[in-house]
Specification:
Helix 2 packs across helix 4. It is elongated, with a radius of gyration of 21 Å. It has 259 residues and is an alpha+beta fold. The termini are far apart. It contains four helices and 17 strands. The strands form four sheets. Strands 8-7-17-16-13-14 form a six-stranded antiparallel β-sheet, with no helix packed on it. A five-stranded mixed β-sheet has the order 10-9-11-12-15, with no helix packed on it.
């Protein structure tokens, strides 16, 4: 962890938790979100030309604090996971799978405290098969650093059924289905989606399946790719995401689980 970030975290813990216990305030979702972001930052790993960050988080709260969040308990994990995905995209971090957040009651955690365990893990992998755990709190495991090495085996899987709404530079709209083998995009005729755009490379990008999710990959294009306005090399896609290649826009409209 960078020295300034470590100092910031120290002072936050020094003042926040005693103040919260003194005034009997409960943990708020935004505080949990900030701790998840710190755990993500602490678990960064340099891999080739990418920075991979944790995507699995277990948030430990005192039972009283968890009870105070009862009204939002059903949607809390999903909302926190969405925020984690947005944070990773904003910082151009790579994820091996969509983030998942579980919030659990832990009597060992002090009142008004938050402890986050984070790891890099595929959807169907056991904890022992994923990245080294990173915990935010007393007694935590050693955070993974840039010198740590991890290798991920990504098997071929059946893609979810998905449809792209394509808008060409001339304003014409068309619908393209992503086949079981994925989708290649570019100006060349051998692509699954042939772009009618001079700013799109002959072999510009590709959508592939990975552990039941859709991934967009830029294939070293000249003008690059953007997803939701942010330049990307590789990113997990979700319904409503907008891919911009030159003056061509592709919006992921429908996703259904494979049979």
């Amino acid at each position: 962890m960078p020295p300034l970030a470590a100092i910031e975290r120290f002072f936050e813990r020094l003042f926040e938790r005693p103040s919260a216990r003194l005034f009997r305030t409960h943990v708020q979702p935004v505080q949990i979100q900030r701790r998840i972001e710190r755990a993500m930052e602490s678990g960064r790993r340099a891999m080739a030309d990418r920075t991979v960050v944790p995507n699995r988080f277990v948030v430990h709260l005192h039972p009283d604090d968890l009870a105070a969040l009862a009204e939002t308990a059903d949607s809390l994990g999903g909302s926190l996971a969405d925020e984690a995905l947005s944070f990773a995209r904003a910082h151009r971090y790579a994820l091996v799978d969509r983030p998942r957040v579980d919030v659990v009651a832990d009597p060992a955690v002090l009142r008004a405290d938050i402890r986050v365990a984070a790891e890099v893990r595929h959807a169907d992998e056991d904890a022992s098969e994923g990245g080294a755990p990173v915990a935010d709190g007393p007694g935590a495991s050693r955070p993974a650093g840039p010198a740590d090495t991890a290798v991920f085996t990504i098997p071929t899987t059946t893609l979810p059924r998905a449809v792209l709404q394509v808008t060409d530079p001339d304003g014409q709209a068309r619908e393209v289905e992503i086949g079981p083998g994925g989708l290649t995009i570019g100006r060349a005729d051998d692509n699954d989606l042939v772009a009618r755009d001079s700013r799109v490379s002959r072999h510009h990008g590709r959508i592939v399946g990975r552990r039941g999710t859709l991934i967009y990959l830029d294939l070293g294009s000249t003008n690059g790719s953007k997803v939701n306005g942010e330049p990307v090399g590789e990113v997990v896609l979700g319904v409503g995401d907008r891919i911009e290649l030159g003056e061509t826009a592709l919006v992921l409209e429908v996703v259904e689980a494979p049979d």
